[in-house]
Design brief:
alpha+beta, ten-stranded antiparallel sheet, about 20% helix, single chain, Multidrug-efflux Transporter 1 Regulator Bmrr, Chain A, about 160 residues, about 40% strand
Length: about 160
């Protein structure tokens, strides 16, 4: 069952993350690094302050995407090797919570994009030579696979930042 879409105001949120340029087929390789981030935080005694996420920075569906796997934290963290401290932007977001296996996120994303287009909403996105650069295109993974082995029951929050 999907919840939303709706428009909500989100505050800034510090996080620790790992980014990589990948093709669409290899986005999972970035998500696969989330345990590395959790381990890095645990070794420093830093507790997650929210669910893990993927952040899409630059999207060129024909070539590559700049994608970041991240974990929210209460206070900013310093860069260390591949793991970087950063901040998710504040602002108005179009948000939708989707229940279903990861491959169904493509249809859920399309539904969110259509909903926004019907309302004349504009995304915080700008064209670059590398593709579309997004101010905030996020997938928050609300379900822990260890707690829910049925992928059809996984919940993901899509949050796309709207233009000011």
């Amino acid at each position: 069952m999907d919840v939303g879409p709706e428009i909500t105001q989100r505050p800034e949120q510090p996080y620790a993350g790992i980014s990589a340029w990948v093709t669409m087929a290899a986005v999972g390789s970035v998500a696969d690094r989330l345990p590395e981030i959790f381990g890095w935080l645990g070794a420093r005694g830093v507790a997650p302050a929210g669910p893990p996420f993927l952040r899409y920075h630059v999207i060129d569906m024909e070539r590559q995407l700049l994608v970041e796997a991240g974990v929210p934290v209460a206070l900013p963290v310093d860069d260390d090797g591949d793991i970087r401290g950063n901040t998710l932007p504040a602002g108005r977001f179009a948000v939708m919570t989707h229940t279903g296996a990861p491959p169904t996120l493509v249809a859920a994303t399309a539904a969110l994009l259509e909903w926004a287009a019907e309302r004349g909403l504009r995304w915080d996105v700008s064209p670059t030579d590398a593709g579309e650069k997004w101010g905030g295109r996020l997938e928050f993974y609300l379900t822990n696979p260890a707690d829910q082995p049925d992928t059809n029951q996984w919940q993901t929050e899509l949050a796309f930042r709207l233009a000011d």
